[in-house]
Amino acid sequence: MRDDKIYSKPLSYYAWQRLKKNKLALAGLITICLSVLVALLGFLITPDSTPHANDQLLELSIKPPGFKVQILKMRKNENVEHVNFFEKMWYGEVSDYKCIPIYKYRFQDEFIIYEEYTGSDPNNGSEIKLNIADVLYQVNTSDPVISSDGKYVEFYEINTSEKVKKPIAKIREEVEKNNIYTRKYWLGTDKLGRDMLSRLIIGTRISLAVGFISVVISILIGIFLGAISGYYRGAVDDIIMWFINVIWSIPTLLLVIAITLILGKGFWQVFVAVGLTMWVEVARVIRGQILSIREKEYIEAGRALGFTNLRLIMKHVVPNVMGPVIVISAANFASAILIEAGLSFLGIGAQPPTASWGAMINAHRGYIIVDAAYLAFLPGLAIMIMVLAFVLLGNGLRDALDTKSIDDDQVMGF
């Protein structure tokens, strides 16, 4: 005996099954999910975890991918505020140490003598002499570090008034173990000596955030105006459609630039500017869908039962047009990423030192014709991959949510 229930599974189940069969759409979905994970982890996984991944080492300007250099970490003689796990994840954390690229080093009594890294061949860097206590501890600079028979160093820490005495041999061991290491730049450095991999990772967060917030804004405005226009028709429809056509006639990038100039340059202003220009297509699609749905029998039944127009729109009309909205949102997400990159490239989007892919391309566009073209190519490739992922997912959702293409036997459970 068959189950008496006609619809054994919801249509979303069959839509998901169809989406899984679309290899390109599934690849786009996986790419987006991985990008979201990278964006959420943020500074927890970046090699440079300072705010905005903005640790500038000008000696390391424009180094190729895979470049390695020795780094001496010198303790800052100032108190640095430490943040909790989540604050570090979202905003990064100021380091307790100043990083100094070095070519080679040696110890002499209570001093460490290192040759500055220049990148030349031969290096020919200046030799700098530091007391090893200055490297490892927060030393009160008003009181000089003194040595005692070449075996101990004595100094005052900035947080205490007591004299500290440490054996030189032990400090040397700690410096070599914890304060001198080899740093590898997997994707090289930019023109300011910043880690390209870290900047690209944080740029993922910027692009996804702009896309998400902009799409939410466009959906809210588009559904509201489209639903009112399609449901009430008449004079209300004429006024809203006139407004939609006016906005539609203005080039998107031009409108975004105008709104950005009004609101000011900045990170949050880009969200609003892009969102306020992307609602038009949502509103037109929603209006067209609702014009046909408002005449359906279940809407007439709702009116007969005395349901309010607001209830009919929110609970019975809008939920039945969300399929096309989801497809449009995927396409708009890709458009928002491109628009944000364009604004940042023009200098009116996210402002330095924020790591934006568009700004990174703009900053290094002059290197395309020399041997460092990867500086502009890498963020451009990231934009291309992200946009392609959303386009492929949007196409897959369009096919998966097309109920006409689902076999009747599947829906009926036969």
Shape: elongated
Q: What fold name goes in the CATH topology slot of the largest domain?
A: MetI-like fold
Measured between the Cα atoms of the first and last residue, the distance is: 12 Å
- Poorly predicted residue ranges: 1-7
How many extended strands?
8
Return the average pLDDT rounded to an integer.
86
What is the CATH architecture annotation of the largest domain? Orthogonal Bundle
User: Total domains, how many?
Assistant: 2
Structural class: alpha+beta
The level of helicity is 40-55%
What is the name of the CATH superfamily of the largest domain?
MetI-like
- How does the major sheet shape up? 5 strands, antiparallel
Query: How much strand?
Result: 5-15%
Number of helical segments with 4 or more residues = 16
Neighbour order of strands in the largest sheet: 4-3-2-1-8
Q: What are the secondary-structure elements, in order, as H or E?
A: HHEHEEEHEEEHEHHHHHHHHHHH
Radius of gyration: 30 Å
Output the CATH class name of the largest domain: Mainly Alpha
